[in-house]
Fold these 4 entries.
Entry 1:
Amino acid sequence: YGVEDTTSSSCGCCPAPWCPTRAESCSSNVDCECLWMTVTGDASTTTSRTTTTTTTTIPRITTTVSAQRINTITYSQNFTVSGTPSDQCTAWEVFRAQLIAQPYTSMTMKGTNNAVGITLTNATVVAAIAQALRTNTTYGPVSLDLYSWAVGVCGSGYEVTSTGSICACNTGYTIRPCIGNWNWGAIDGYTCSASSQTMTLIFQY
């Protein structure tokens, strides 16, 4: 005959013929301990014990994240009020020569007056500005992202501006280190006879 193992509350989970007096369905992830007793004659008793284990395997999930490499070409120089740039102009010429064709994604103008600055994210326009600076050609003005972007000659070199006017005194973002006088531009300020500041131009690709 079948006898229920009172020491285990989950005996009903065991398969037949164990614990035939309790026929409940097994639930997952539990260990079932059951007892089966067989009586021979009226003097000997044989006891057998078994353990049944139900397991659930959870698939392992692996996630791979690929980081995109970011490259930049940067011009950053200090300018002094009423000073005529010299080393700054040399650095500008080296910078412009580095602007070869690349899959450019943005251009940022920033500096002392505005550490965040302004960023152009139209890839087509960014590439056109880079090419114009490298090849000494005029570009723009192109109105985009609330600014009027342009490249043109001023003094003995080329400038880049967000004001739409080349070689002009106005307020905005203009970098023209090779002008040959103290009107070398400004970051977020008046672009002629500007106060001492750092001006930075970054192309990202």
Entry 2:
Amino acid sequence: DIDLTMACSILQKQIDIIQGSSDNLIIPSEYQQLFDSSSQSLKQSLGECFICLTEEKQLACMPCGHLCACVPCGYALRSCPICRQKIQCFMRISS
């Protein structure tokens, strides 16, 4: 009897949290698929150099910190291609 009361209480709290709308439900398998596809596209976009679009990004502009260029393209940069702030130096980031 107490188990049924507890289960009903938990169910009511869940309904209150989602405000009765199934759009507010998070289904783990659907969420995982969405996360996997977005993280894959993020990995692809994070990996390529902003300048040549072929090599892997390895240089972060300082002081802004934007990771934006491969080493060969970094030699030609004087300002960050993302925020246009003057580059004082680079920090090499290895994956």
Entry 3:
Amino acid sequence: MLRHARTARSARRLALSLATLAVVGTSTATASAEASAPTAEARPATTREFDFGACPSLSELPAGADPGAWRCEAMNAVGHLTLGRIDQPLGKALTITFAEGTVNGEFHQVFGEMRAAPVRIRGTALTITPRYAGHSDFQSNDERRGELDLKFRLSGPAVPPGCSIGTDAAPVRLVLKETEAPTVVSPDPLVVSFGVEDKRFAGPTTSGCGRLGPVLDAALRLPSPGGANGIDLDARVAFRSYSEGE
């Protein structure tokens, strides 16, 4: 009974903070946060900032893969996310590791891991965390820099585990366009910086949020049509050949 009352109070506090968000908006905090958010250019050009520990192992590469023809890429990125009413800097680095190479002249990729820190949504007790949703393609072409499926976990008082915007089955698919051409930051070890964005993806309603789902959808303005959302990333990538050992 006591636990139920506490849960109800938490839910009411969350609903109140979401209502405040709906009235106040996000523009003021966005401007100040953007001014203080770190950029890729501000970080040191050294592989010490990169974690190769999540690189796919040699045993995870396709059969017949020559270690000398394969490399692991470790990417760190900061940027900005607009999704429905959410308008937040991503000031803590989002990290992605994956392997790429060829087997018998054919290009292959093996995903390693994605990590991201929770970001507090201004004016609420909620946090949002980008999560990998099962698909990536980082082979660039003339139309895009790459593709990445994401879901955005929502956490906060009375928010059930598994509450998210997008799911593995119905993810938010980013088709990333280049905004800044690759620039060699360090030739040895090789570190490259670049910028990407997607301004065209749609934002779905929440999933797995129980009774709070409709409240969250209304407060966060979800669903949000394509063209009303966006993600900008300033990225750095370090490279390590599999011939150098795991």
Entry 4:
Amino acid sequence: MSEPCKLLQCPPVGEMNHGIGLCYCHICTCGNHKCPGDYLKNQKYLHSALASIYKKDFTKKPGVNTELIVRPCALNPGCNKMDLKTISQQDYVTFKIDKTKSAKYLKESTTSVLKFAGVSNYQSEFPNWGHYEFINIGGIKRQAGSNNVKLSPITTYKQNFCKDYEIPNTQSQKKLKKTNPLTACTDFFAQTTSRDSFKNFKKGNFPERVRNKALGITALESTRGAYETMYRTEYNTKEQPTIFSYKKTFEKL
């Protein structure tokens, strides 16, 4: 029995691969298999990359020989503007600041004025401008007298405004305010009408009708029914349920 064909062991191949030649048909050992690409050579597909309208029309078109245009700056790359050279570098020359030596203040003598080495518009307009002369003030002269002056309690305010002023007696002022009805409510005293009239509330203790001793204002009467509620009228605290005592008795074994 003959061996099976090797082409049967290969994976399937698409139609386009047969047309290009990327197939396994050349390894056929039995001779019965034929490549489908032989039948597709003369067939043209509209969407095929092998035979298209573009290939048919433009493949045989002769090319146009054009002369090579060489720019004058092509051989000299340094003259190109994009080669790290800008318009600002061509038009504006770099301004270099000359370095000057550090200004030194020279003294001709101990009493001469310090020289100013700087130059400015202000100095050109006002030539007298410059450093001021340093004046040695020296030590402060002290007084010949003693500095230890005692502080006197007598001041001009006390001499001018406190001669005829007498301090009022505080006890007499309190008595005056207590007896005067207009100033009775301004200050606080231990004995007041509120303290005398109102006491701590207790059960069955209602405030009586009193009069304000200072201003004569009559206080409002509080009725007895104002302190009675529905809970108090319906539930009497005196009528309590009977409580029976319960004693445990243990049987003797």
